[in-house]
Design goal:
Length: about 240
Amino acid sequence: MRWIFPLLLALASMGAPMVQAGPWARAPGDVFLSFSQNVSSGTEALATGIMDVSGYSSIYAEVGLGRRLTLGLDLGRGDETDEAIVFLRRTLTGPDAPVQVALDLGYGERGVDLLGDSQLARIGLSLGRGLDAAALEWLPMPMTGGWLSLDAITVWDLTRNEQRWKVEATLGLRPSARLSVLLQGTAEAWPGADVSYGLNPSVVFEIREGTSIELGLRSSFDDRPRIGLELGLWHQF
């Protein structure tokens, strides 16, 4: 499995990336690709000046297949782990429905240093609603539009008989055609650990048609809080 991530990382760096997870079906043949790099440190280490930095790289891709089907690929690599999941999402609602609903099923593999590889199965539910300018008139500055989405994912480790889950709620606002502001709240739980919560604001700017860059803050609050930065490159083609 470990050869897959470097190969796709090279392809992503050549292509420049973009993505926005959610229930909206991709048009047939449309491709979204995103590459991001996250670095974080424990808040206690930051307070004492100790270097405790960890990194996480990810690639996310979606391809529209038609008939409201979207094929997705979710790859991630940390300091001691790597993971790859392929999934198929079916948007259950029509393109004109005000609230979009989708289900996805996936299969993949996770590798952990010293523990070996394990097989994964995934199921996800996504809800989303677009927001026009009129719905956002209450904000202090005018917006051209936005969206709300909720994504819930459960991943089963079939090899170790363990389960983890994650819920993400995202509010996206567009002050202009080229600028978006995102605020994401997360809650997730891994086997043997308490629920961790996060608040992740970011800004996305379109540097050229179809290509955007993202800069965001990332936080995780549990018994060992962490804070970090994320830089992402998004592309649509």
